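Methods: example folding runs. The two proteins below were folded one after another, and each record is reproduced exactly as written to the output file, sequence line first and structure-token line second.
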Amino acid sequence: MLAGPDVRFGTALPRSPDGATPPQRVVADIPRSPALTGMRAVAALLVVGTHAAFATGTLTHGYVGAVYARLEIGVALFFVLSGFLLFRPWVVAAATDGSTPGLVRYARHRLRRIAPGYLMVAMATFELYVVFTPGPNPAQTWHGLLRYLTLTQIYTDDYLTTYLHPGLSQMWSLAVEVSFYAALPAIAYVVLQRRRGRWRPARVLTALAVLGVLTPAWLVIAAVTDALPNAAGMWLPAHLACFAGGMALAVLGAVGAQWRAYVALPLAGALFLIVATPLGGPIVGPAPFWAPATKAVLYAAIATLTVGALVLGASDRYARILSSSPMVWLGAISYEIFLLHVVVMAVTMNLVLRWPLFTGSLLGLYMTTLAVTIPFAWALHRVTGPRQTRTSKQLA
């Protein structure tokens, strides 16, 4: 997830003999876990890495280059985290016969978390690119600015030639994230409907599985027909499997399911190595019709296993690493790192390192970009982040 609410874990809800979870009061004082904040840091660092690999041309270096390309799995981690964290209040309400989240409060919190930092960065980037023109920039227009300010730039028939902005190219995933925010209340209402007043986790998980299947179906339709715009692979349906994976983790957590980290993490690693093969599609050039769907399903599985090993696992070592002070600190500003790193990377590569595009050192660009981005991200977070996220009491 790109920006999330407080991270809290609860105990499993007891079940009645017929398998339904009886209504009961949720314990108000649930311990918070900083580990998911650390997971956000991992996701952000992976995204910076794949963009550095692209800028230095490293993606074309055989299988190693493909591995660097697949570091974009960081976006899938963000999406799974969003699905888990944002759906969980609805799950708790359904499982305990409690009140569902208020829509006005939900919308206000999402808007407050996302909008201030994003609008500031988008406006500043458009202003910068008035004088900084390293290459073609089809989005550098008043209409392009309006599209980016409203996060509608991906809803077009030819994104690459109409609204791609080289300083804001990563914002496609924020547009997807925001569309999930808008759709979540309706999704929660549909999948959590109770029959005869009973909480049926198995039914909810089945509904989420159906939701996840929409992703490969959507991508196959986009690949083999002209029914959808060529940018449809960037829209929410193409990533629902990731969000559904996180939502399923919220349900599994409510019923006390547990995953063993020493099983889930190696499996996620093996799937990552597989998705870096041609099975996940070529890194450059046209892809077979099945490749985008295969990659999307594998990404969802990898990210769900990785996050699930934390929220459903019992590995103190895994949680301890992610809960370390440096990881939590980076995780707290991960959204701002995400917002800033592409424009910082472009300026750094062109004006500081003076490397032409697709040349230079991957490690050099990666480290330089982080060295410049992190202080700016911290400052942006201090200025635009919600008050509670700028205190030590709110780690997520």
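Second run, written to the same file directly after the first:
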Amino acid sequence: MTMKELAQMAGVSTAAVSRYLNGGSLSQEKRERIRAVIAQTGYQPDVVAQMLRTRSTDHVGLIVPKLDSDAVTRVTAGATAVLAKEGYLCLFADVHNDPDRELAYLTLFQKRMVAGIIMMATVMTPRHEELLRSASVPIVVTGQQFHQVPCIYHDDVGAATELTRLVLRKGRKKPAFIGVTEQDVAVGLNRRRGVQAAMQEFGMDPDTLPVEHSSFEISGGKAAMERLLAHHPDLDAVICATDRIAFGAMEVLRQEGRRIPEDVSIVGMDDNWACEHISPHLTTAHFYYKASGETAAQLLVEMMRNKNQPGPVHQTMLGYTIRERASV
């Protein structure tokens, strides 16, 4: 059924139907007649056509690096709860840690006229910078600090520094770090810098820190731990950029007969739900991912409401809490 047919059945103009569907002013009599016909016929408006006419939508795009990540789950839970209360529906894009797919979805979502975008970012390339700068809809980035872009990010340096201090206070002398690509500034570069800052505080040469890079998977942590042990068999502490990496590293240490924490202390970051279900329980840094999703969504809603009134570029850093458990 078309809007014109609905209008004929209700005995009103198509303009009246349009005002009814879009919350415009209308007499109570016409409103009741239109409502009765919609209830009788089950009429559903053509949302795409409505978007094309009004150039507006109640959809928000969420671009995430990987849906099976505990951190991503918490960010999206926070964001979708806020957006649902504000009447927005969410379209998810899982880019599988592929920057090219991230760029493709940034372009696609703008062409499909979403009202705004939340992006859990990993890397910033010149193309990312160009797309973010020229975006036709409001965009909020979470997890990274990108200059000139509204961001909600975490104190990655501070968390890594405090975790490393904790390990070194236990008397460890030969720490190592398993990170990720340093194109990911937050997780790769900043968390490594935090480890080195703590080493310097304890009178160690930060340039002597053994570093191996991993994927974000448990298998990556296993492979990186194997490489570390091959080149640094005397290491007595491992700081891992994520908990999943730490889970893989712990498995290799056990296979090699290294006791945790008697022989080797190990820590992760993110406070994955499994940290309290492995043995020994993993010491980690809890980042407030759900709060970051909520804060990003609140900021995006404000930006969408004031789209034609440019305001300040908000950049908010959230804190962390160290969860000290049995692995140190």
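Comment on the second run: Residues 285 and 322 are 4 Å apart (CA to CA).
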